[in-house]
Amino acid sequence: MQKKRIEGILPALVTPFDADGEVYLEGLRRYVEHLVGKGVHGLFVCGSYGSGPLMTPEQRMQVAETVAETVNGRISIVLHIGAADTQTTLRLLKHAESLKVDAVAAVTPFYYRHLKGAIVNHYKRLIDASNLPVLVYNNPKYAHYVVTPEVLSELAEYGLAGVKDSSGDIALFYNFMGEVKKPGFIFLIGSQTHLVPAMIGGASGCVSGLSNAFPEFIIHIYELCRRGEYEEAAKLQKKANVLRKVTGEGIPVPFYHAVMRMLGVDIGVPKAPFEPVSQVEYQRIQQALVEHGMLDS
């Protein structure tokens, strides 16, 4: 049974690692406490920013256990369990059920270009096996499959609880919200770059990369939207989108390791093949964030 509502701003939690590629547990605990203290509404754990696909199942379970223990029910946790194969995803699902998490999400099985029937049956198996709410994680750029509104609606009728959409296509997100009629369905936009238009359309919340470093800034945009103050929210949305350019292209995991160091929060190093940013890049990021008023000079 769902313990907490999945809504608001959920950082796409970056996982700390040590130089050997093992999970930096002390850093993870401190980082989670830092974000809880900043007022985030929840955490999205072991996703793309969390290096989920780079970890072994055992490491993912270690992260899930540590985050759940540290949070201890104070905010919601959506645990990403998606993998390239159904059996590993089911294994991570069963482990999730033993923890204090509020929902699980699974990216569409990646690498191979699966047909619609395989995708639908994959999620039906998860729904059938789960005592937790199950969310589809739509990330076509990396998983090579676009979940359609029709597929999402079919799965919603079967028992799917929600979607995290990282397609970057706000029209698709609106089509999801228009097609799915299930009451209480969770609609999470997968980037703060679309937060304001998503909220105007009725989104539940946002899984945000930038809120790893600047949670209060992203929460402020969300709260403005909740109050209907869209003009002010739109101004800050533009700033958030400029800041996204500062982070770099793709999934900028090394950026967050660097920025958290600037903010005095030790989250170790990224997991190889990611590499820490160079000293030149570190200085470029620092200068850009100072210029945008996100860091003190």
From TrEMBL:
Active site: Y137 (proton donor/acceptor), K164 (schiff-base intermediate with substrate)
Binding locations of pyruvate: V207
InterPro entries per UniProt: Aldolase_TIM, DapA-like, Schiff_base-form_aldolases_AS
PROSITE patterns from the UniProt entry: DHDPS_2
Keyword tags: Lyase, Schiff base
GO-annotated biological processes: small molecule metabolic process
UniProt similarity note: Belongs to the DapA family.
Protein name according to UniProt: N-acetylneuraminate lyase
Protein source organism: Moorella mulderi DSM 14980
Name of the gene this protein is made from: nanA
